[in-house]
Amino acid sequence: MVLLAEFLQKELKERSKAYCKSKNQYVVFISSLESNKILCSYLSIYPLFSSKFLNSQDCFRVMKLIEEKKHKTEAGKTLINEIKNNMNDRRTEFV
Predict the structure, then answer these.
(1) pLDDT interval class at 34 (50, 70, 90)
(2) CA 73 – CA 66 distance, rounded (Å)
(3) In order of start, what are the domains of the chain with their CATH numbers?
């Protein structure tokens, strides 16, 4: 996890969850465009599997909208919400 955090140019944080007190959990938060570009570049070479792959593709679509500054328009906001509302356990298409 330390190497992952360094690769993404972020810091590693420790978290605890009420339902999992006996185990340490570590997270790397990325919110900057630069870190997201690094992650996208990595995932284009080493893709994820199953629905996580589809979620990453959706994230790439949203990131492209942000890069093009379309996320500030009403149409862009609507599209991002549609993408978000069809991810993870709400996904119905698995192609």
Answers:
(1) confident
(2) 10
(3) 1-30 (no CATH), 32-95 (3.10.28.10)
Which pLDDT value is given to residue 80? 95
Question: Cβ(17)–Cβ(26) under 8 Å?
Answer: no
In angstroms, the CA 66 to CA 84 distance is 14
pLDDT over 80 at 24, yes or no: no
Structure-block tokens of residue 23: 């185990």
Q: Which two tokens stand for residue 56?
A: 């990453």
Distance from C-alpha of 93 to C-alpha of 95, rounded to nearest angstrom: 6
Contact 39, 76 (CB under 8 A): no
Encoded tokens for 74: 């009403």
